[in-house]
Amino acid sequence: MDEASTSASGGAARRAFPPARSGVYYRFTQQNLPAWKPAMTPGCLIATFLIIGIIFVPFGLFCLQTSNHVAEISRRYDADCVPNAYRGNEQAYIKDSSISKNCTLEVKVLDHMRAPIYVYYELENFYQNHRRYVKSRSDKQLRFGEKYTAESCSPIQWDDNGFPIVPCGLIAWSLFNDTYDFTYGSKEIKVNRKNISWKSDREHKFGKNVFPSNFQNGSFIGGGKLDPTVPLSQQEDLIVWMRTSALPKFRKLYGVIEEDLRVDETMTILIRNSYNTYTFGGKKSIVLSTASWLGGKNDFLGYAYIVTGSMSIFMSILFALIHVKYPRPQGDPNCLSWNRKNSNN
């Protein structure tokens, strides 16, 4: 009886727990699962390239047309805003605080621009992706305060008196500080500076109870200053600047104009040209742009689809001509004759 019960329980156990080799995981690791592999015959290959081309070319033309409907005004001002007396010595001009940095530009609206109109500042030859520059920050300090001041912020870590700098690091220290005011005829245009940064950055990367301290107070001054009474989560210029760019030419959002600009009207821009790009040969521009469902004005996506689709159509035609001239054999004649002999036997 004991042996019978033992064998019965053992059989039940075996039935309840099948061997591992019968499981899906085993069949997956041993590549025994059912699969489908398409047979890439010449006809299938030609049809695939042709379908890709037929889809990509019209979509590329549509993207290009959408991009062309985006109205954009771009004006470089770093050279135009230097007084004539300092045209040969821009660094002396930008470093001398006694010289007025105000500059007035007039731009003509060539296309009707519907609100919202996004205002960007564009920098060129500024390598925010430099390894030492990118590492010179403390994310914990931005979130929780000065007690997390880290060695990674070097060389902008402590002020001249040995107190921690908040926010520390080269990225915050080089904060962009040019400002823009717009006049449209005799009317001042208001620029909305709120919600220009990512909501996730404001809520999760910059502390609501962390305030700037000892920032730009030393002998080595970088870019803009911060209001010490405003927490970092509300310093949106800083939040936008701290999201570093991957390329040496980039745009960052300055604000949003929430009214239309009519065509052939002249707009006056008052610029406070304070940011020093002359030391490293950089360029500064102001950009006003509308947006579409694809974003701002960018012809690259449309041209990329058109070129890829055109190449696919060309390849399908080329493969079709090759297939017509040199058709693929249906099989090895020797194997066919061997199969016929076996079938006869």
UniProtKB/TrEMBL annotation:
The keyword Nucleus does not apply. It is found in: Membrane. The chain crosses the membrane at residues 39-64, 300-322. GO terms for cellular component: endoplasmic reticulum; Golgi apparatus; plasma membrane. InterPro entries: CDC50/LEM3_fam (IPR005045). The keyword Lyase does not apply. Keywords: Membrane, Transmembrane, Transmembrane helix. It comes from the Eukaryota. Belongs to the CDC50/LEM3 family. This is ALA-interacting subunit. It comes from Panicum hallii var. hallii.
